[in-house]
Here is the input.
Amino acid sequence: MFVHRGLILLLAAAGFRPTAQAADALITITGTVQWGVDSSGVFGPPNTDLSGQSFTVTYRFDDTKGSPFVDTCDDGEIFGSGIGDTASSTQSNTGVAFITINGRSFQLGTGRLGETSVTSSAQVVLPGCGSPRNYGSFNVNAVNTGDGYSGGSFISTNGGISPAPDTTLTADPHWEHSFSNSNLDGVSALTLNIGIAFLPPGASQYQDVADVSASLLPSSITVTGPSTPCDICSRIASQSQTSDGQAESLRLCYMLFGALKELGDYRAAFLSNFDFINLFPTVYYDVTQLEMQRLAAGTTFAHPIEHMQEMLAFFDAYKFNRDIWNAGGIAEPHWQAAFVAAFAADMNPAMLTAIDIQNVLTAAINAHVQYDLARALSYSFNHNFESNLTPDDLQPDFLASNQTLQDSAATAATDIYNAVNASGSSTAFLWPLFQQAWDAFRGITRGVIAMRQQAWSAGLTGNLPRDLDDSALIAQPLSNDGFLETEGTASCRVTP
Here is the structure.
């Protein structure tokens, strides 16, 4: 057997084409901690025994970075592929990782806690060249030696995640192509090791920041490949059994990508210049982007058209009020209060604290979920594409979005951290801010899930909450559908 790697001509010939624009592949692994000790309190109180806790590890690989490769036999048969980098800077590394245990998360490769270099790789191997092995291998290793920090961390699949005997993990040799498997061998495990200390300014001794060792036994793995709006929308449309349903799916999906375009513009402004007015749309963007990927996967939502209708009605309310605020007008009372709170916080950027972030974000979430969501649901119930569907039919899809809120928290927290970091705040400030922000996110997410259930009940009965000034909510705001659709289709260069 002889393995050839880095053959770009083979990559192109086999369809392994590096993209010109950023394209992230997500690998989500869930399971149970075999054994683990958290001495420092990253995933709970100090000296916590993590054994038996559930975990989620999410790797995110940017295929425009790093070095792609393919694995081939002497006869040219392709039996695997991957991507990797070696000791890259935290701006150029291809892979990052988010580990969640006991509802709390840690991340590697995103540049925080003095990370100076990152090594990462992703690989899928099929049986080939006389070898029966079939596995997926994913690794991120970070070195933390900058800004007063010392140490490092890694999360590794070691010899790879393998399927149960006499089964296959995936039949596709392309590491980015989507698949899901919950029939694993029950033996191959991930290793997590975190050992980071910090030397405060003027101090003579390092203080432990994170000290964790654990073995994680996976029960499922899901790969969601990089997708353009065109790809995501076509995958969602393919789930419909009628031509009318497919056309409506495409229309709604393109409109949602138009919404993502607007939210993404606010997020870009937030990341380049931290401002509280764009904090909420940044989180909103991260949640919506992940929800679209889950819709495209076709395994979570039974009624994607109606779910997208709800998402659009929900966004319409935010857009309506944000456009009014941007133009210097007076928004609906619940949003006016949230915008004023963000504006007031922006007046004192030097006094930034985690409590400020929590308060501003909570005010916006309350406005959007308590008021906008109840109204959007009430409107959607009366405008379902499939008129025979009942709220009972749609509720499982609604509840499934709770998982999206939880899974997107790591990305949202990273955006906030990066925006604060770009604002010039000191490293000594950033670490306690991030720890406090994670605690806040956990509380906010729990509160949002409970609030969503209340909004469902209000939308179902039509007993909508009264606004902050005790006035009745105005009728459901509706955006210019054609404008959003045009924005969404522009990235695909297709005609609506």
Confidence is low (pLDDT under 50) at residues 1-22. The longest helix spans residues 427-461. The CA atoms of residues 153 and 194 lie 4 Å apart.
